[in-house]
Amino acid sequence: MTCKTVQRRLSAFLDGELTEELTRQVGEHVSRCTECAAELARLQKVWQLLGSLPPVQAPPFFATRVLAQVKAGRRNLVERVGELVFARPLLPIAVSVGILAGVLLGSRLGSWITGGYRHGSEALVTQVATEFESFGDLPPGSLSEAYVTLASANNIK
After folding, report:
1. 3-class SS at 48?
2. Contact at 8 Å (CB) between 152 and 145?
3. Were both Cys, which of 12, 86, 143, 151 would link to 129 (CB 3.0–4.6 Å)?
4. Over the stretch 36-45, which tens digit does the pLDDT of each residue have?
């Protein structure tokens, strides 16, 4: 058993909370190790000093006041959670509206800057279909063939 392990168990050793085997192991280690023996002596001294203190009397209604404060704390916690849940939904809504406005503004600004696609999606479909046809024969069953077929069927081209 290492010194670190023994020193973590010294309090339980003093309180008689260890198993017989652990009590034997800690006792053997302390009898051979001066550092752990000194730590055990310091811990025993602290226990003796704590035992020599006069008992503390709780003020009247101490338990009642503590329980009342705990209940008040729970109430405050519930109120705070309620505030977070019910008062803050405006923030995600505001962020969502801001993102949507940014996307719409960016889309419009992009169209205005490039000067293209002023006539809506019809012009875009025609342009894309023309670009697909410029590659020559489209592979049968491909997405590009389906797109050109769909655009042609709607007379968008």
Report:
1. helix
2. no
3. 151
4. 999 999 999 9
